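Following up on my earlier thread - several people asked me to post the actual chain instead of describing it. Fair enough. Here it is, all 123 residues.
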Amino acid sequence: MYAQHKIYGRGLRKIFMLTLGWVLTIVGIVLTPMPIPIPLAGLLPLAAGLALLINYSRTMRRVVQRIRHRVRWFSYMVEHAAHRLPKKIGQVLHRSRPHAIERKERIMTRPPDGDLEQIESKR
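Reply from S.P.:
Thanks for posting it. Predicted structure:
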């Protein structure tokens, strides 16, 4: 009986965190371009929302990985910030590194095993 409540609570927590992450992300997107007295006040909720989504959503983590793979300066900025932020936030940001995409591209561009042997025998 206790195990069912624990599993139900875990799923409920994930739904709550995903909802909170999306709300913070949308609020951040809306507040960032607004002319309010505090410049770029929307970046804090945007960053917090994305951190929650990266942590709790595999799809969002992969989207951020693809963005970081395509926009290198953004990836460097995230890595730079990850070293200066608290350890837990840095760990969440490190989960979105684009290394998996780069690895997949290397595997896809590598010649098949038979072709590799033919290339080496020609040398």
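Residues 2-31 form the longest helix (30 residues). That should answer part of your original question.
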